[in-house]
Amino acid sequence: MYDDTLQRMAENFANRLTGPLHFRLLMQPAMAAFFGIRDGIKDAKVGRPPYFWTISTDPAHRTAFLKEGLKSVAKILILALILDAIYQYIELRWFYPGEAIIVAFVLAFIPYLLIRGPANRIAGWWNSRHPSKSDTRTSR
To answer: Among candidates 7, 22, 3, which has minimal Cα distance to 103?
Structure first.
């Protein structure tokens, strides 16, 4: 039973690469990356630490950061779930909620998680090298 489920899931995941709606495999991570970059730049402006690093190493702020990240990508996660449900209906004529959650998580949250921290660091580096005009006026 367990082996059959894993085999079915592996086949279903592989079929998503070429089946209907396969373009979403590019668009959803791109949207997640856009939101990760946007939030990373916001983090750099207010001097917050890198997102993934803080989640990994700071238990005091982990829950708050995870909630904020999920809130930020909630629309993308919901869209990913809906699109996967449509795919499953078209291709499989059945709905496997566990597969839909895994696909949504992989396509939406993981790219967001991986992009936000580096975007924060790059924006912080950029801001330190290129101070805005308002920063130079206040320092005089």
So the answer is: 22
Give the number of other Cβ atoms within 10 Å of residue 107's Cβ: 25
Shortest CA distance to 12 belongs to which of 113, 126, 98?
98
Given pLDDT bands bounded at 50, 70 and 90, which one contains residue 136?
low
Contact criterion met (CB below 8 Å) for 45 and 96: no
Q: What is the DSSP string of 35-66?
A: HHHHHHHHHHHHTPPPHHHHHHH-HHHHHHHH
Q: What is the pTM of this model?
A: 0.76
Token representation of residue 69: 């990240």
Q: Is the pLDDT of residue 45 over 80?
A: yes
Q: Is residue 11 in some structural domain?
A: no
Residue 21 lies in a domain: no
- pLDDT tens, position by position, 13-24: 888 888 777 888
Chain Cα centroid distance, residue 68: 12
Rounded CA-CA distance 96/19 in Å is 16
pLDDT at 9 over 90: no
Number of domains in the chain: 1
Amino acid identity, residue 127? N
